Amino acid sequence: MIIRFSTALTLLPAFFFSFFLGEISAQPKIDAKLQLQEPALLTSAGQSADTQMVKVLLDRNKIAYRFNLMGGPDDLKAVKSLIIVIGGSTKGMGAAGIDADKEAARVQRLLAKAKELKIPVVGMHIGGKARRGDLSDRFINLVVASSSFLIVVKEGDSDQLFSRGAAKQNIPLSFINRISEAQEPLKSIYGKQP
Fold it and tell me: Helices 100-117 and 134-144: crossing angle, nearest 10°?
């Protein structure tokens, strides 16, 4: 019994460090070179209410933005970056009087214009597991491929859809555990750190 206990004590630090250091090293770093300019256009891909929460974070951290849930290519004329909050909501699309196809077409036009104008795109998915599924995944795939930076609540990446997309496109990705933590990467990329 003493031998087993001492063996467990010997292995415990190795397990502890490999487990936690593995988690730390797997955590993507914020690209310190990425500095975005204000104002941003804040919009949605999927019309979820998550956009309202990001709006609060931008206000709290004094990041200048223009807000338009149905933002289109013309809205990019007066901004220097684009923040798209990803999350499909049938209720939100119904309230906007559109369906998923019309929303996807709007997002595609917006992303194409952002690419043409060389406007960097921040893709944000803050709804976690609750904001995943076929409807949201359609918008995730659209936005990730065009993003310059991603901020994702980690539980929303259980199938590694974001991780794989970011790795494939070489996109910096910042995982957060809860919505309130999104302000740290936002402050970093918008130069709002003290």
Answer: 10
Nearest by Cα to 146 from 179, 109, 98 = 109
CB 151 within 8 A of CB 179: no
pTM as predicted? 0.82
Distance between CA 34 and CA 30 in Å, rounded? 8
d(CA 131, CA 155): 10
10 Å Cβ neighbour count for 29?
Answer: 9
Q: Hey, which CATH number is domain 31-189, 3.30.70.2210, 3.30.1070.10, 3.90.1200.10, 3.40.1190.20? A: 3.40.1190.20
Q: Which residues of the chain have pLDDT under 70?
A: 1-32, 194
